């Protein structure tokens, strides 16, 4: 099992690393789902301030991956976001190389859509690059990208956290005005979008410095090989060195891209489809699709928990155990064995002499028919009666035993004695000299019901504070002093 952070997020495995922290796949125990958790690695004030600024960003857009929640635990802090499993655009280019123009247009439209939502919040991203554009694992269906990593983003007008003559971002995706130290603005993000589009179309990182020098010296060049002219005109409007010559908004660039898309040729049947794979890989041992595997609780694997009968039962001394079933199918009834005949005592009459009869003895009674020796767990069955008119005498059939008043796995307990007249039951006795009635057997002990005690009236409380005859003169005197002081200040 992984480390549980702040009692909610269980870190599973690392899936990435950024400039100020590592990104983990984590299990959210509250929402019962996997999330991406960015854990702060450094604890200096400058890094923590950037971290707080990033987690405070809340943008709800299908193509923006913004922080969703955050947590702190001692000297550690993290924030979470949706888990995106398709990797980044860098993974796609590594798998396929240059992408078809229509596929690039679909990705570029989604990127500009998300960037428009970010700019609408007054936020400049300042770090748009292929590694910060993540992909959902959609397979061969329509791609779905999400703009992520707002670690160095800032709102327009906020104070900068960098020193003078120090540029923050990724080399190769800087706008020319950023290198010169200008204030971050929306056109700088659009310049980076144009470089990302060239990267997708050519399959390699463009040479930003050579492009800027050529545009500055010769103007807009012709379309490079493999890039359709309508699409190139849109890209040229994004990577102009002069920010005043670029598209001013992401929405304007989307409109120009939609017009250029209508002029592009359709995708041929021989073109290889682009498939976005799951780049995260399988979960480590101990984790499944429904979260971490919980070990079974002790005692839940026996026959009682699984509903399986083993066919045997252990009899504990002093605990009633039923007799085993009779193979003949006859139901068992537990009846005690008949009592033994009494031993001869001093007042017992002597037996009659052998060969004679006692004149004072009553007429002889026929002896009862012999009965089999009782077997534990069974009772004697009398022979069937003879046909009338002269039925032979037979012993009386023993009465059926009463039903068991207790479960078969508990000891029998004597029945409670009847309550005495006038006794309050089951409440405790009213006087200590009386004896409480015995409480019948229950599965759990139940405490006696408490008897409320009579309440003693409390004397009325004395009001707090000085009396009114003292407070009023003091307040009037304070008001007079305040008025005199205010008049003195006004005259000075």
UniProtKB/TrEMBL annotation:
Cited Pfam families: Pkinase
Ranges where the Protein kinase domain occurs: 9-264
Top enzyme category: transferase
Keyword Transmembrane: yes
EC number annotated for this UniProt entry: 2.7.11.1
InterPro entries: Kinase-like_dom_sf, Prot_kinase_dom, Ser/Thr_kinase_AS
Comp. bias (Low complexity): 299-318
Ranges annotated as biased composition (Pro residues): 336-431
Record-annotated membrane-spanning stretches: 470-490
Entry keyword Transcription: no
Gene Ontology MF annotations: protein serine/threonine kinase activity
Segments of this protein annotated with the region Disordered: 283-438
Entry protein name: non-specific serine/threonine protein kinase
Protein's organism: Streptomyces yaizuensis
